[in-house]
Amino acid sequence: MHPVDAALQQARQLLGNLTPPELTPPAYGGQVSTPTDWTGTAAERAGTVHTELDTNREDLRATHKRAATAVASANRLSEEARTGLTAVETSWQQDKAILGPLADTPTGQAALLQAGQLRITEAAQLIEQTATQYATIAEQLAASSAELPHSVENPTATQAVDFKTDKPDTEGPPDKRSMPIITEPGGLGPPGTIGSAGTPNWIEIGQDTGIWLPDNELDGLYVTEPGGLGPSSPYGTPGWVELLPDSGYWLPKDQLPDNAIYQTPGSLGPPGTMGSATTPDWVEWIPGSGIWLPDDKLRSP
Length: 301
Description:
Helix content is 38%, strand content 10%. It is of the alpha+beta class. The strands form 4 sheets. It has a 3-stranded antiparallel beta sheet with strand order 2-4-3, with no helix packed on it. A 3-stranded antiparallel beta sheet has the order 5-7-6, with no helix packed on it. Helix 1 runs parallel beside helix 3 (106-146) and helix 2 (41-99) packs antiparallel against helix 3 (106-146). Residues 154-190 are annotated as: Disordered. Keywords: Plasmid. It comes from Mycolicibacterium gilvum (strain PYR-GCK) (Mycobacterium gilvum (strain PYR-GCK)).
């Protein structure tokens, strides 16, 4: 199976194909009247309880109405997402049909690769947008459930189910990144670290590059065939950045500082920052990567 077909198949699995549920309005019954000839303390308390129950019943009815609206929005969103993905899949099949006769030429291979990357990006953006919209709907449901009546003894008795994605829980990126250790390409890595207690192991970024980083700062590292397509961005994830061009070593973008700047590899760094009094100096984290970090986010290895 072509890698693009596999990525689109994964996207289809994430969206699913189940028929969405419909909420049926519950029957709450009518108000209960207190007998007119009933008097005294018990009658007064019963009247108070009846009033509270009537209020709670109206709150439940209003909450259910809001929940039904949210579920209907989620159902519509699900259908729109599947329709959008079908359009991406159709476009990819057309790309293959048009470029297939040229697949044995360098130009054709490059064009097909570019088309595949575009379709993967479209699918990833569609799923990420859908996940964000689902999260918004889940927050609306949680806010509605928070308004439901509860007892003083158990104030959180009624809760909406938390919205979860398939994105793994992580502690986020390190506060600072280590500068790489540079050795002779094809030579041994940093000495005295492999298996040493209290020190990180080291990973060479690419084959025979001589550029080494500590593995405890590469959470989520994904290795692919050098020069090939990067990993697809599944449900809710923010995308990937290749640590060196054509190395096949990819890191999730959310494992890098939010203010990281990504330039074309081999180009000049961010303009107007070197030596500025109010902005940090910028350092290319890995030589030739095009990944620039403020120097206050870097440390010596």
